[in-house]
Amino acid sequence: MNNLKEIENFEIDCFLQAIHLRFGYDFSDYAKASLKRRIQYRLQQDGLNHISELIPRVLHDEAFFKRFLNDMSITVTEMFRTPLMFKSLRENIVDKLKTYPRINIWHVGCATGEEVYSMAILLHEEGLLEKTRIYATDYNRHSLELAQKGIFALQRMKNYNQAYQLAGGSSSFTDYYSAKYDGAKMKSFLKKRITFAHHNLISDQGFAQMHLIMCRNVLIYFNQQLQNRVLTMLGQSLLQRGFLIIGDKESLEFSPLLDEFDAIDAKLKMFQKRLVFNAG
Amino acid sequence: MPDKNTLFDAVVIGVSAGGLNALKVLCQHLPKNFLLPILIVQHQLQTEDDFLVQHLEKHCVIKVKLAVSTQCIEAATVYVSAAGYHLLVEEDKCLALSVDSPVNYSIPSIDVLFDSASDVYGQYLLGIILTGGSADGSRGLAHIVERGGHALVQSPEDADVDVMPIAAIKAVTAVNAAKLNVLSLAEIAIFLKELAPHER
């Protein structure tokens, strides 16, 4: 080890190992560039100089770890992000979902819940909400608490309203929340069919019998190996002919799922699991 | 001027207000034997996703692609940041995206690309800051120079909006002024042209 980069990489490895041993969270297969930015952010916030100085912190200070865990899962999210995907979902998938008596949907990495509530609104307008169970999972308990509350900044509602319209909304967006102080609280009927649950994609097993899985902008943080492992698990969690939607800048191209799924909307990365007849 | 024999492995460009025209000019002047990959962060509205790629394709003789996750960087290709995502370079010279918080109020942020690219390419990276109305990219450009890379900044008089060039010049000068050239857009185009391998 003779240059700064190698030393820093070694420090990162040690830090991640400390987290893994102490708290069971394994970040070793995360894509390194973003991971490093997040670690450096924590370093700056705590006024430290070297990544190795984070190791005693994480071993002996649980509150520090919680802060770091939060740094690791803070992402930009918004209601009806990529409105055209929701529009395509309405046009290309909803009719197929309508043929089922009950529907299970899994939002993987739901963060603070904006996407889940968007989905609930869409299902409500399509008359599907009452027969749907939505599982919204994340490994960050703090995010889950916020998601469960369903209160979003009032000043963002104008943009969300635009996105809702672009997504093919058939009603008025203002029907779905009540404004209080500077917050917009999502109406409780949207929440009734949502189960928020803690789930760690890296260490926990998948679900079963899902009709639709939303996993957008979660895989971008993983290296190819971990992406493939998670995608395989998501594929197994789906029913035959079930739907998988990933982020529109993500890809199944290098994953084992490529041969098991058909593209419903190739540009917006919406896929359907192929029917496989089991011999014997 | 840096030694013309200095070899670069990649070029990163950060640009904001006035970028459509500036990038068009640079693209028009790239020779068809230009081999280096060029990664561009242009601040843009969320809805303008494919627009910039289509705009540049019209003016570029080399390939132009929208940057997507895990795509590996190829020679002679221009990669344009996707609206609403940070663009980063991984150790294996593949692209990574993130939806982390905005940096300098921007997503994508120029600093985020420049920092990660300089960690990977070190002294073999050429960083360029063009016209723009924010200070994003100045810290990243200084980081490139700290890692031994080279910096070009569009001269403030030549830029449509001079805020970004002025901030970048200040930040790089504080680190190592010898690694900086302040040039007009036309001169930057010539600089890039000369990075293409000479015909025998």
Topology:
The complex is a heterodimer of chains A (about 280) and B (about 200).
Chain A lengths: L3 H20 L8 H14 L8 H7 L1 H12 L9 H10 L1 H4 L5 E6 L5 H12 L6 E7 L2 H9 L1 E3 L3 H10 L10 E4 L2 E4 L1 H4 L2 E5 L11 E6 L8 H14 E9 L14 E5 L4 E4 L7
Parallel strand pairs in A: 1-2, 1-7, 2-6, 7-8
Antiparallel strand pairs in A: 3-5, 4-5, 8-10, 9-10
Chain B lengths: L9 E6 L3 H11 L8 E5 L8 H7 L5 E4 L10 E4 L5 E4 L5 E4 L11 H12 L3 E5 L8 H9 L3 E5 L8 H14 L3 E4 L1 H9 L7
Parallel strand pairs in B: 1-2, 1-7, 2-4, 3-4, 7-8, 8-9
Antiparallel strand pairs in B: 5-6
Give a brief rundown of this model.
With 280 residues, chain A is of the alpha/beta class. Chain A contains eleven helices and ten strands.
Task: Give a written overview of the molecule.
The complex is a heterodimer of chains A (280) and B (200). Chain A is of the alpha/beta class and 280 residues long. Chain A folds into two domains: 4-73, no CATH class; 83-150 and 188-273, Rossmann fold (3-Layer(aba) Sandwich). In chain A, 41% of the residues lie in helices and 19% in strands. Chain A is built from eleven helices and ten strands. Chain A has helices spanning 4-23, 32-45, 54-60, 62-73, 83-92, 94-97, 114-125, 141-149, 157-166, 188-191, 224-237, and strands at residues 103-108, 132-138, 151-153, 177-180, 183-186, 194-198, 210-215, 238-246, 261-265, 270-273. Chain A has a seven-stranded mixed beta sheet with strand order 6-2-1-7-8-10-9. A three-stranded antiparallel beta sheet of chain A has the order 3-5-4. In chain A, a hairpin with a 2-residue loop joins strand 4 and strand 5 (183-186). Chain B has 200 residues and is α/β, with parallel strands linked by helices. Chain B contains six helices and nine strands, in the order βαβαββββαβαβαβα. Chain B has a seven-stranded parallel beta sheet with strand order 3-4-2-1-7-8-9, sandwiched between helices. The longest helix of chain B is centred in the last third of the chain and has 14 residues, at 163-176. Chain B is globular, with a radius of gyration of 15 Å. The A-B interface holds A 5, 31-34, 36-38, 74-77, 81, 217, 219-221, 224, 227, 247, 249-251, 254 and B 66-71, 82, 84-86, 88-91, 96-102, 107, 112, 115-116, 119, 122.
